[in-house]
Design brief:
With 287 residues, this protein is α+β, with helices and mostly antiparallel strands. The protein has eight helices and twelve strands.
Length: 287
């Protein structure tokens, strides 16, 4: 078994390994090579130092990385490789000045789940994976009086990013904003970006809320400005997505939400027909 810094030539094999782990954990595997490439190109991420691979007899059997935000990415085919990767990634995280590694575990099975149980990880939060089936007729949304809806244009990026940052930072003290240029590249460069399913709600020309979907039928981000909350705008934005994807013939729409979200998001999604299919746990490892 050999551990070395990842190289760009490893990109395809790393994505295959990560996709296999996603399928085993969630039943969703989708090839996201463009997303992985974008992660490696993030500002502050050093390929070959912040990510490592494990090889055995020329076959890639493990991958580990620490993101600029201190998030642990780890997938391995056996416990020994996982343990070695964790030790080295934790050392790299300390070099980068992190005092914590965070890991998202989306299944009770697998090497990462085993590591979390065996090491002094602490439970930080639970994330719900929710789906809304789209069989039958889906109603068009009812917008609050005075609100208009349109789709995203590149000139909207700064206002949308600012609204999302304000919304998430307003209730989550652990939220870490992303530099604007990087956010734009990350979001609009994703292979599932489609401006026609990014909806912006406006009042008198000012941004009041937004719902950003991936083209696969996934609600990536939703936010409503403080002055517009409690009027049904959040529900209308979600409903717009349900209606559109039903029109496109998608079987369902999915999303993830923090189980402890204090904004009432979980109740909203349940009211709109979303059902929890599984839970992810975020764990922190003090370094």
């Amino acid at each position: 078994m050999t551990i070395r810094g990842a190289a760009w030539d490893d990109l395809d094999d790393v994505e295959d390994l990560l996709a296999a782990h996603r399928r085993a954990a969630t039943g969703i595997g989708g090839a996201r090579i463009a997303q992985l490439r974008s992660e490696w190109e993030r500002t502050g991420f050093v390929v070959g130092c912040d990510n490592l691979v494990v090889e055995d007899s020329g076959k890639l059997i493990g991958y580990g990385a620490v993101t600029p935000n201190g998030e642990l990415v780890l997938a391995a085919l056996d416990d020994q490789a996982a343990n070695e990767l964790l030790e080295r990634i934790a050392a790299r995280a300390r070099e980068r000045g992190h005092d914590t590694l965070r890991a998202t575990v989306d299944s009770d099975e697998g090497t990462l789940a085993t590591l979390v149980r065996r090491r002094p990880f602490e439970l930080e939060r639970e994330i719900l994976l929710m789906w809304r089936p789209l069989g039958g007729e889906i109603d068009e949304p009812r917008l609050p009086e005075g609100i208009t809806l349109r789709t995203f244009e590149p000139a909207d990026a700064a206002a949308v990013h600012r609204l999302l940052d304000e919304a998430y930072a307003g209730w989550d003290s652990r939220y870490v904003p992303t530099a604007h240029d990087e956010w734009v590249r990350w979001m609009t460069g994703d292979p599932e970006f489609d401006a026609d399913v990014w909806w912006l709600a406006e009042r008198n020309g000012d941004l009041a809320g937004c719902a950003l979907h991936w083209s696969s039928g996934w609600l990536k981000d939703i936010a409503v400005s403080p002055s517009e909350r409690g009027r049904g705008l959040g529900a209308a934005l979600v409903q717009r997505g349900l209606f559109e994807f039903a029109e496109r013939g998608h079987p369902r729409v999915g999303l993830k939400v923090d189980a402890a979200n204090p904004t009432g998001a979980v109740r909203l999604y349940e009211r709109l027909g979303f059902v929890t299919s599984s839970r992810e746990a975020t764990w922190r490892l003090p370094l």
